[in-house]
Amino acid sequence: MLAIVFVVGTITYASAQNDISSENNASTINSQSNITNTTSNSAQDPTSIVITPNPAKILQGSSIQYIATVTDTAKLPQTPTGIISWIARTNVGQFQTNSCVLESNNANPQEASCTVNYTAPAYCTCSVPVTIVASYQGDSSHRANSSSANLISLGGENITANIVSSATQVIAGSPVQLTVTVTDSSGSPVTAADVIGVIAYDPLSEDLRPVGGTFIPDSCTLSANGCVFSYTPPLDYHGTVQLTPNFLRIFGGIPHYGSTTLQVTPNLSEPSTTPSETNMIVAQHGNITVRFISSFGAPGFNDGQLATPQGITLDQSGNIYVAEMNSKRVDKFDSTGHFISKIGTNLLKAPTNVAIDKLGNIYVVDVTNEVVYKFDSAGNFVSKFGIFGMAELANINDIEPQGIALDDSNNVYLTDFADIQKYDSNDNFMFKFGTFGSGNGQLHVTGDMAIDKSGYIYVADGNQRIEKFDSTGAFQGWIGGCISGTNCDTSNHVTTGFCNDCVTMGKGIGDGQFTGVQGIAIDKSGNIWVTDELNNRIQVFDSSGNFLFTFGTAGSNPGQFDEPNDIVFDNSGNMYVTDQVNNRIQIFHIDYDVRTSSSLTNLSTDSSQISSHDTTTSQTTKNTPKSNLVPTLSSVSMAPGWVKKIFSFHDQGQISDTDLINTISFLIQQGVIKLE
Description:
- The termini are far apart.
- Mean pLDDT is 80; it is low at 1-40, 388-398 and 594-639.
- By secondary structure, this protein is mainly beta.
- 38% of the residues are buried.
- The chain is elongated.
- Strands 1, 3, 5, 7 and 8 form a 5-stranded antiparallel sheet that branches. Strands 2-10-9-4-6 form a 5-stranded mixed sheet, with no helix packed on it. The protein has a 5-stranded mixed sheet with strand order 15-17-13-11-19, with no helix packed on it.
């Protein structure tokens, strides 16, 4: 009887030449064995074996699932049964089990299959493919057979992780689909990899801080079709999100990572400022109440978005100008935060501060170009001066100008690395003062500055203090953390007023101490407001330099800060703060008690101010309101009943301190209450 031998499958050898010879010998032996089997069992049905996937590319150390399908190729097929044995011809890597039992395919009775997991070796220098061999041992009705598949194991340096988003813009709190695929250096897809996730971060932040949000699933084992994620950005986030794949486990070098950018727009159903937050009191001290009003801004580079806002100023119409270091421009907003226009695009490199003179000219400090640019009120370039523009600066230590302020004569003061420079309104250099060091009147890496109504100059000094000079540059004293000196509280290590003989302590977190002193503004009462950047707070001092109070903590809620940089007041008592890392502007209103050094006494009995049924006769009374914001009244006679009720309501907590104070102010204006 003639025996017919079927040779099925292609074997790719991945070992040295001597290994190949031995494999050929083994193959010959197996073939002879099959011939013998076939000869003695000619009634068995022929079979074929297919291994999937084939070929395959996976990462070193990663796992892949192989499927071997045995098909009965006879005219009257039966379902194959039995065992598949697995080997890797190069003897590398590991199978979870070396064999698997065939299971029938109900949809196709002539087929049966089984699966096994194979893990490629980590840190292997696999310059040739691995050959995966599946051997079917046959059964009483089916002939034995074998087949092979090619596998390439790649190191991390040979692959690129790509990511695609189903959208480029999404509303905060809404999902977007992300697909991650991996390719080799030729652009061919990688079949499997362990284990992939996606990270979301803010590309505008210096430390690429995570944005957060929800990924479903958290991670994925790569298949031939890639990994699919659903990503939902946080409800309270708006701005740019950079999405990048991330291998949780990788061997053989660092992969190349692609990324995609997603613009997250605000969820209008979730306003950034809720009604309960508007007009919220964030600080009270003596006669000063600080109320949060609103905030505006979103991270990003588009119009109206903010990218590391630093300096801030106002024009005479109340419009807001913000120097954005990373957007390389100055943005103009109206008083409510609506975007109007931008200044300095294609010119500015790293604007950190901005000021406006009485003529509407706009001065912008650029620390990278080391100059001050001057624009007209329409935003047109006029001139520049500084390290590249003035010969007087050419011999100064390669400076980086930071702060800027203008006096009532439109003279420009510029904080430098270790001195203050003064220019006239025509950009002509006038003089400079200050030297490098930490002694009294010396400076080191200056920040912002401010000028009060009397012409005194206040400078944020990198020695973690505020220094005061007169208009000629004569040193007047400083406030901040101290070790010793005439006006130094050595118990709390803080100055008690401006000190001209104190020794600075440098950084501190206590009241009146600074870590990252930066912005300065003077309010209408002469109080000094300072952004304490790295302590995430604002500190307030009176005009004599005595510490009053502080407010703010680290965070992104109203009244919280993440590196507040600059501060400015308008004529209505509103205060604007650049909340740098949160990429927003916070607006506060400062209420001042009507009480001054005078006390409130003697309610008037003028019948023209009150109706007859509101007037009661009583003995002289003395009210003692529960808040120190409310003055003590004495020598009261003929007080109207409705006035008494207001104080009673306040004592019972039914009306706020501010409502009571506003009422008293109204009564003073109407002449019902007289000041002595």
